[in-house]
Design brief:
The structure is a single chain. This protein has three helices and no strands. It is mostly helical. It has a domain at 6-49. The protein is elongated and about 55 Å long.
Length: 64
């Protein structure tokens, strides 16, 4: 099992945020239980707002 340290936790949270990993993978990377990882990720989401820009998304135009 990996050692829990701030670097591993940050990597796991960023990977969860970008949907590159799932909870079991991130928890194993950090040496945490899945419940601990869920709680940690919830805290991460509180202090890191979404970073996508809604205005950049273009509407689809349908041509009939």
């Amino acid at each position: 099992m990996n050692e829990t340290n701030p670097i591993n936790v940050e990597e796991a949270n960023q990977s969860l945020f970008r949907a590159k990993w799932n909870i079991p993978t991130a928890a194993a990377h950090c040496g945490m239980t899945q419940k601990q990882m869920k709680l940690t990720f919830r805290e991460f989401l509180k202090y890191h707002p979404m970073d996508y820009n809604v205005e950049v998304q273009l509407p689809l135009s349908y041509k009939y």
